[in-house]
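Please decode residue identities from the backbone states below.
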């Protein structure tokens, strides 16, 4: 579905006092800790590193993305219908509000945007829970260009996360988290929760309609593998798929099963994820951020003590992890370089 309608949005670019940006001496998350299971974890995450609290007091943070040309991170607060901007020299600002729901549909509690990603031209693309679409933001006028809102004539559930390939293909997940009542919502038009491929100027293509709650999504640096996290407490699994030349996928297999960690009572489920240039995966899950080898071995965890939603690489040399965890925006140094398709 290609829709050229541009929707005006209200934008506020201002410094805010609450939620709080901690701009003085560094503050650290008291319950944060590193748990190493393999020497390779210590090579990636410096022993003794601490989770720095950059900002706090949000409703539910999600979708962090680093803007390399301007050196700042954007992230969503979904219930607050806001995208925030955090920059070292400036602290916290509102980047866009409302970010998602614009009054076109009856939303649940998760009315804002979720996953965010910059395309090859530096434009922000967002998974919009509230208006049940993917949109591209046209700056500086701050208008939304809808990219996908329907499949087979039916409204999408609530697009959750996305990743963009170097050729412009967009992969996204569509669970029901933005709908009141989730799968039982009377507003849910599709009988499944899908993983999709959106080629430029084409309609969405379903890649997988069998997952219970598809959530985070990621491409490997060589774009030969697609990762999809399932945030289902009964089946907290990270899957991989082979990517064909036409962008479609096949050969689904289990990459990592977080059931054993979840059984320890640690908070959270597989959600957002990112990758370094060597193919190591950093995925949120039970306990915080799990660091996995390219073969799916659990090397260790960056434990937050919070239900942790998403993670991205940032910083001038992409050697910092920015983590959205419950009401926090966090940061920790890493001895690796994050991969992005569009430097």
């Amino acid at each position: 579905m290609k829709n050229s309608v541009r929707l005006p949005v209200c934008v506020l670019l201002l410094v805010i006092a609450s939620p709080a940006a901690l701009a003085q001496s560094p503050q650290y998350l008291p319950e944060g800790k590193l748990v190493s299971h393999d020497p390779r974890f210590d090579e990636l995450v410096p022993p003794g590193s601490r989770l720095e609290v950059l900002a706090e007091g949000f409703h539910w943070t999600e979708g962090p993305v680093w803007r390399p040309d301007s050196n700042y991170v954007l992230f969503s607060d979904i219930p607050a219908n806001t995208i925030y901007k955090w920059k070292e020299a400036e602290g916290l600002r509102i980047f866009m509000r409302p970010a998602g729901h614009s009054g076109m549909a009856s939303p649940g509690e998760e009315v804002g945007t979720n996953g965010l990603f910059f395309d090859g031209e530096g434009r922000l693309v967002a998974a919009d829970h509230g208006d049940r679409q993917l949109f591209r933001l046209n700056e500086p006028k701050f208008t939304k260009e809808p990219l996908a809102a329907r499949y087979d004539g039916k409204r999408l559930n609530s697009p959750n996360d996305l990743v963009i390939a170097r050729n412009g293909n967009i992969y996204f997940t569509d669970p029901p988290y933005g709908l009141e009542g989730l799968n039982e919502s009377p507003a849910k038009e599709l009988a499944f929760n899908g993983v999709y491929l959106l080629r430029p100027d084409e309609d969405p293509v379903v890649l997988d309609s069998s997952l219970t709650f598809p959530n985070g999504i990621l491409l490997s640096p060589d774009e030969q593998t697609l990762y999809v996290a399932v945030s289902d407490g009964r089946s907290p699994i990270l899957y991989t798929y082979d990517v064909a030349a036409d962008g479609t996928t096949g050969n689904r297999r289990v990459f990592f099963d977080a059931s054993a960690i979840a059984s320890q009572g640690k908070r959270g489920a597989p959600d957002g994820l990112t990758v370094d240039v060597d193919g190591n995966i950093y995925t949120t899950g039970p306990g915080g951020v799990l660091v996995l080898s390219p073969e799916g071995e659990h090397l260790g965890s960056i434990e937050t003590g919070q239900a942790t939603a998403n993670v991205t690489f940032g910083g001038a040399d992409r050697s910092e992890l920015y983590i959205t965890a419950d009401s926090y925006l966090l940061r920790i140094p890493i001895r690796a370089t994050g991969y992005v398709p569009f430097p």
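Observation: The domain at 12-21+28-333 is CATH 2.120.10.30 (Neuraminidase).
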